[in-house]
Amino acid sequence: MNPVELAQRLAARERPTGRPVMKQRWSRLLFLHWRVDPELLRPLLPPGLHLDLHEGEAWLGVVPFLMERVRPVMLPAVPGLSWFLELNVRIYCHDDSGQPGVWFLSLDCNQPVAVELARRLFLLPYQHARMRCGGDLKATRYHCLRSGETEEAIYEYGPDGEAQEAEPGSLEFFLLERYVLFSSGRNGQLFSGKVHHPPYRWAQAKCDRWSTLPMKWDGLPEPHGKPESALWSERVDVDIFPLRRLMR
Predict the structure, then answer these.
(1) What is the pLDDT of residues 45-86, one digit of tens each?
(2) Where residue 192 sits, what CATH number does that domain have?
(3) In angstroms, rounded to a whole number, what is the distance separating the alpha carbons of residues 228 and 225?
(4) What pTM value is reported for the model?
(5) 8 A C-beta contact, residue 99 and residue 119
(6) What pLDDT, on the 0 to 100 scale, is given for residue 248?
(7) Is 15 inside a domain boundary?
(8) d(Cα 108, Cα 220) in Å, to the nearest integer?
């Protein structure tokens, strides 16, 4: 990662101008990643976005976590609506200006209202799913079954070691420090949306059980072997900013 790229990625941590539209808490996050042939992932990106590489390598991620206290700004959280589960499959990209971000291949969610709102307001590929989560902070059991599928993705995980912030330029920094999402409208117009939160404090994850089924559900070949990176974070409080049309 050259100095210009690193400076741009560090600048992405700064709070965006304007007012957020939503507040959320993301908790018990598990970040699983596999190295993937870049040529497999490039066709998944729309024109105007480019695959983001770390030391020449592409990464494909599966991230289950809990969504908590989800609410529009100025409104209170609502029991039954503001707490739910989400699991996303993601790749990393940047736009023509070099702005780094995330391209979601899918986002499974067990809150039907959230699925429909996210599809309409943020143009993201949310999927209805039956999901449940048990255990505690140190030993989470997480289940996901996408609508229309027959086999359940199961994860059992917790922290393994002390939490820390990612060292700028490290692989952990590349995978975790993402403050922009990209999405696409019906006419192919690209949008970007910014989030703001403190840098993740992460630990290595002890992951006794994992699944690559969400990749299969998205039509991708399932990678062989264990995740090459498994990271855990307790929580972050997040401000969500509105989508903006990406100028090309």
Answers:
(1) 999 999 999 999 999 999 999 999 999 999 999 998 999 999
(2) 2.40.400.10
(3) 8
(4) 0.96
(5) no
(6) 66
(7) no
(8) 16
Domain-located, residue 17: no
Rounded Cα gap, residues 144 and 106, in angstroms: 13
Domain coverage including residue 88: 3-10+22-245
Contact status, residue 31 vs residue 229, Cβ threshold 8 Å: yes
In a domain, 16, yes or no: no
pLDDT (0 to 100) of residue 1: 77
How far is it, in rounded angstroms, from Cα 211 to Cα 222?
A: 9
Instruction: Indicate the number of domains in the chain.
Output: 1
Q: What pLDDT is stored for residue 224 in this prediction?
A: 85
- Dihedral sign of CA atoms 175, 240, 127, 188 in order: negative
* Angle, vertex CA 6, rays to CA 184 and CA 97, nearest 5: 35
Q: Is residue 83 part of a domain?
A: yes
* Model pLDDT for residues 229-243, shown as the tens digit of each residue: 999 999 999 999 999
Distance CA 82, CA 87 (A): 16
User: Mean pLDDT across the stretch 201-205?
Assistant: 98
